[in-house]
Amino acid sequence: MLEVRNLCKHYGGIRAVDGASFTVEKGSITALIGPNGAGKTTAFNCISRTVTPTSGEIRLDGDRIDHLRPHKVTARGLSRTFQISRNLAEMTVIENVIVQSRVDGWSGLFRPAMSAEEKDKAMSILEFLGITRIAYEDGHNLSYGQKKLMDLAALLMSDPKIILLDEPAGGVNPSLLEEIIGHIRALNEKGLTVLIVEHNMDLIMRLSHKVVVMAQGRVICSGTPDVVRQDPQVLEAYLGGILEAEAA
Amino acid sequence: MTVTLQQSTTSGVLEARRLHNEKLARKADQTRAAWFPLALMAVLVALPLLQLTGNYNYVLHMVLFTASYVAMASGWNILGGFAGYISLGHAVFFAIGGYFSGMILARFGVSTIVTAPLAGLVAAVIGYLIGMVTLKVRGPSFIISSIALLMIARILFDNWEFVGGANGVTLPVTSLPVLWAKIPYYYAMLAIAAFSVWASYRIKHSKFGLGLRAISKDEIKAESAGIDTRFYKVMAFALSAFFVGMAGAVWGEYITYLRPNIFLIMPIAVNLVLMAILGGKGTVAGPVIGAVLIVALNELFVAMMGASELNILGTGLVMALGLIFFPLGLVGTLARRGKLPRVLNWD
User: Fold this and answer.
1) Is B296 a member of any domain?
2) Is residue A102 part of a domain?
């Protein structure tokens, strides 16, 4: 469904992403992992076009999306969250969610900001995530975990085909983590394709069907969690310490 | 493939939630006083009847003058208040509107009141083109680019002989008797002001307005939320130029003179920004309150202190104090504290 080929992003002399290639199959949960500075978030930013890739191809359902502007990528059905939750302060949670719903043409531009259907839809998404009680709360009064959930809710408002989650478990407490894992799994079972960048190995190993490991801007290994776990290159680059500690 | 969420199990909860939301909406309606702007409009429409009892041209002039600033500050608010792009160059569109309609009046004798919407459109098209260039930068860089725009326009108009250069052009004086001479311009400007306030209300409550608010908070997030930020910003620029241009068109004929140092000056550009900010940028009532206050204060200080430098100092002092105690502007701050009188809640 999502195909990344020879993706490069250079910042001056720094090669943040240096020829990465991987694919995300339809209906799967794919995780992108790697040590700090491996280029995961940069790759993410290139896919969602928040930054412009230096070179390489990105295809969504066979169509190239690497030349599109970010809102067009979103309109094609690819939505993302940000590592550090970017929410719109001084706007309520429900506005934060509804802002992500699709607007078509000129007449769409000047229709009421929040139609009854959109409110219902936003509310049912908040219901699904269990945060209806904060619907009318101001975006910047939320806790960190609530912001993460709000990001997820806003994502779903645009009816995406594939969602990119940048560290959904970063900085959230263990019980909320379980909740988020549950939500991601439930969404995936409804047919949503998911690509996750994450440092939490527990989450990765439990959730993902496929793991792509990046180091120094390149993909060094990809496969099922079990395969990746045993790959010597991966163990050396990144996982070694953790798995040995787990085994002990 | 879209994500459909199971509603069957949660429909009871949703129903309760819907009722609760309706209650909230009703409550919001009760704190709003839509009758007030309408009543104010009715009073202002009836005001020229005063002329039957004596010469109240001064009163009419003050209302007309305030209305022109209401239109301009409300227009500016679409870009500066909703989208968060502070422009200090909007006097350019005041001039474009004034010169476009004024030149048609001078050459073909068509009243600017008729051509004002056209002047607004011309200003909007030029605003659209300028916006495509200057809206690529934001924050202080955008502010500086807008000041540069004003300076470039000033040099251009000072040297453009077709429109009279720095000397300007005299426009034909109306043939109405003194007592009724202001009336057509009075109603025209009032209509433009009312239209701009109504339009900014409609924009604020549309998808477009929601998108602009998102842009003012976090542009990268807005773009990734699927908002065409470039198009939204440029449209906001064009719309704000539209209202300023319309006000300029009628103003030119009203004062019967087109000259760069009437239209293209910093005080006008700054005044309309200060009005929007003092009243509360991003609110519907803010620019109106700001315009009324600043025009009234100016007039008061001129009456008290004479047209010396002191009166400017007085206005400046009130501005500074106002923003110390009302950092979001009068309407914005009061609304934040939940103390906004109902008559001022037009949002």
Assistant:
1) no
2) no
Under 8 Å between Cβ of B315 and B303: no
Percent of chain B surpassing pLDDT 70: 93
Computed over every residue of chain B, the mean pLDDT equals 89
Q: Which of B5, B14, B225 is facing A99, going by the closest CB pair? A: B225
Domain-located, residue A116: no
The total number of structural domains that make up chain A: 1
CATH number of the domain enclosing A43: 3.40.50.300
Residue A177 touches chain B, beta carbons under 8 Å = no
In this structure, the number of other CB atoms found within 10 A of the CB of residue A113 comes to 20
pLDDT in tens, B177-213: 888 999 999 999 999 999 999 999 999 989 999 999 9
Q: Which parts of chain A register pLDDT below 70?
A: 85, 238-248
Contacts of A120 in chain B (CB under 8 A): 14, 18
Nearest-by-CA chain A residue for B4: A190
Q: Which domain holds residue B110?
A: 50-266
Total count of domains within chain B: 1
Q: Which helix (H) or strand (E) holds A8?
A: strand A2-11
Record the pTM. Answer: 0.88
Instruction: Say how many residues make up chain A.
Output: 248
What's the token pair of residue B43? 């009073």
